[in-house]
């Protein structure tokens, strides 16, 4: 991945898309390491994390993550997810954050040299093109190694650089012993 120290950079993380890719690849992201990695190699202005949250549940498994992100250097952008029943009677959840991500990237573009998008969603192809017209280099991080591939071909072609998530994950993922050590510490307390 080509990163330049002097580049004003922002991360735009599509939480649902990144979660699906990492789950498929068996990766457990350490978000502190992720922030440290980009903060040490670029002039990181912002790190946005986008997620729709179900408000109907008393406890959401996303709550500890989103709370941690909000207090540890990420700009957290959330909205309530919508729950509905489809025509076949199945419970469905809709919580698309594409517009929020697009607006933030376009608004920040005049202040950036490099936008890094963690998503493979084809809806972002036109966004990437628009930001590039403003002189911003765009890197897309996703995966072609998942089945099916998480990265849409048209988004991959539009990006200035595509980075395979699986190739760089070792730089910001938790190692198996990290989880074991953490569990041992919790048992000692």
Features:
single chain, 8 strands, two-stranded antiparallel ribbon, 39% helix, 8 helices, Rossmann fold, six-stranded parallel β-sheet, 189 residues, alpha/beta
Furnish the topology, listing elements before pairings:
Blueprint: E1 8-14, H1 15-25, H2 31-41, E2 43-53, H3 63-71, E3 75-80, E4 82-85, E5 91-94, H4 98-108, E6 114-118, H5 125-133, E7 137-142, H6 153-158, E8 161-164, H7 165-168, H8 176-188
The number of distinct helices, counting runs of at least 4 residues, comes to: 8
- Helix/strand structural class: alpha/beta
Strand order of the largest sheet: 3-2-1-6-7-8
- What sequence of helices (H) and strands (E) makes up the elements? EHHEHEEEHEHEHEHH
The parts where pLDDT drops under 50 for at least 5 residues are 177-189
């Amino acid at each position: 991945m080509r990163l330049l120290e002097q580049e004003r950079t922002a991360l735009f993380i599509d939480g649902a898309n990144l979660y699906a890719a990492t789950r498929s690849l068996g990766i457990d992201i350490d978000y502190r390491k992720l922030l440290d990695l980009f903060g040490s190699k670029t002039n990181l202005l912002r790190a946005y994390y986008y997620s729709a949250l179900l408000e109907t549940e008393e406890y959401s498994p996303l709550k500890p993550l989103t709370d941690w992100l909000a207090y540890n250097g990420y700009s957290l952008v959330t909205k309530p997810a919508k729950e509905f029943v489809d025509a076949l009677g199945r419970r469905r959840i809709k919580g698309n954050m594409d517009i929020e991500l697009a607006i933030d990237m376009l608004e920040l573009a005049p202040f950036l040299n490099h936008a890094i998008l963690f998503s493979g969603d084809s809806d972002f192809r036109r966004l990437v093109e628009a930001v590039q017209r403003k002189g911003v280099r765009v890197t897309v991080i996703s995966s072609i190694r998942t089945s099916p591939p998480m990265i849409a071909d048209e988004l991959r072609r539009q990006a200035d650089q595509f980075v395979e998530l699986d190739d760089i994950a070792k730089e910001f993922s938790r190692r198996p012993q990290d989880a074991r050590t953490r569990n041992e510490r919790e048992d000692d307390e």
